Every structure is written in structure tokens, then in C-alpha cells.
Amino acid sequence: MTREVRTVVFDTDLQLEAYQFEGIMQKFPNHFHDYYVIGFIEQGKRHLVCNNEEYVLNTGDMIVFNPHDPHACEQVDGRTLDYRCINIQPEVMRQYVQEITGQDYLPRFTSPVLYQSEHVASLHELHQKILEEQSDFYKEELLLFLLEQLLREYADAEPPVSAQDVTIEIRRICEYIESHYMESITLNQLVELTGLSKYHLLRLFTRQKGISPYRYLETIRINQAKRLLEHGQRPIEVAAQTGFSDQSHFTNFFKKLIGLTPKQYRRIFNHEVDSKRTVVDLS
């Protein structure tokens, strides 16, 4: 039987999450995060769709997702995936960028995939130091040098053209969803906001945002749920506060997008325990 191990550590020194998935087969549906993701394929082959572009990832390939980059992925060869990444909140990234460049801005990485990147070795070493919970400054040195290289070679400070081209109708829908995600939202309500037909609304939104309106809504709900869980709220309370119909629906969708159940994710930030390490063995 396939043995799945999912390890997540929150590093209080660097203020970021480190994920390690070993032996997984999980398919991740189209979604986005409100933070930066920098990771690499340690073993396996994966089909990725990001910002409506398709990629095939292999061992040694690096991925870099900006906040709100829609992406989905799944195995393509029937074998399992080993994957590592770090997740950096925008406010934390802004601090590192200012430290490195002396400028106050959020970078926009221009390519989600760096094939056979030479930077994988540095990311692997940094990730391992985080998993080992080392407290000296070497891991901070590794992170700053890695970000400096990525900023210089693959990033700019300008929003992508697609973000500038989002129409007022689609912006209005996004703002409404972000303000009312805890409520039951209907397609008719979104139609009333824009005056578009249902079909045209769905097509236009998906084309401009790279994700359907309903998937956008559920991703917003999951991102908010993560914040509530990080502050110690119980999954049953979080489900009710983020608009999910019941706790089962919330748990299933959370694991589908994040790779952990809400209870497992909450344990990472449970200040009643000494370790910030969560290991899930599904063998």
C-alpha cells in the first residue's frame, strides 16, 4: 500500500510555512493562494495548469506562484509525487524584498515553472534546515540569497497585463465575493451586479481570472479558513464562519486544496504544544 507522509512546519524565525509531501497521488483542482509559493519536484512527474498555460513538471523542476495565480495539477505517469515548498505571506515577502533591494514593493514572478533550476539545491537545503528546526541564522542567509537570485532573474514590480485588463464587471464580482464569502451566494446575484447573462458571466470571469466564479468563491473561503484555524478556532466554528454548508463539505474541500484536513492544519499553530511540526502518516 502506498505510504503518504505530509509534513508541515511553521518557522517562527522566518515567518513562513514549509510543506513536504511524500508518496502522494492527490489531484489538486484549480485554485489560488493569497501568498507566494516557492517549491520543487523532488520525485515524480506532474501536469500543471497555471494562468491558463500548461506545463509538465519533472524531478528537479522548480515552481514559483504569485498570490492569486490560479493553478491545478495532477500526476501523469501513475507514480507518486514527492514535493517540497515554502509559503510566504505578502507582508513577509515585502519585508524581505525591502531588505534585499531597499525598495518597498511586492514582486511579480514572471514564470511559474523554472525547468531544472540551479536554485533547487539552495531551496532544498533551506527547506531541510527548516524541517530540522535549526535556530541559527544560516537558514535566514539561505533564504535571503535565494530570494535575491529569484528577484533578479525572474521578477518585476509591475502587475501582469491580464490583471490590468480585468473589466469593471469582473472586478465588481470579485469584490462582492470577497465581501460576502460567508453567505450563500447565487449566480443570479452576480448577474444582477453586472447585467451579463449567466453564460457570458461565467465565460468572461473564467477567461479573465483563470478560474471559475464558484471556484474563486471556495478558494476565498479556504484562504479565510486558514487564517481562522491559525488563530486556534475549531474546524466546526470555522466552517460556519466561512460559508460552507456543513463541516464535512468544509473538511473535504480543505483537504482537496491544502493537502491536510482542517484539524491537521490547526495543529501546526496550536500554541499549547511545543513542536510546530505536523506529520500525517497515511500508510
TrEMBL record:
The keyword Nucleotidyltransferase does not apply. Residues 171-268 form the HTH araC/xylS-type domain. CDD domains: cupin_YbfI-like_N (cd07001). InterPro entries: AraC-bd, AraC_XylS_family_regulators, Homeodomain-like_sf, HTH-like, HTH_AraC, RmlC-like_jellyroll, Tscrpt_reg_AraC-type_HTH. It holds the Pfam family HTH_18. Keywords: DNA-binding, Transcription, Transcription regulation. Transmembrane segments: none annotated. GO terms for molecular function: DNA-binding transcription factor activity; sequence-specific DNA binding. The keyword Transcription applies. This is AraC family transcriptional regulator. It comes from Paenibacillus xylanivorans.
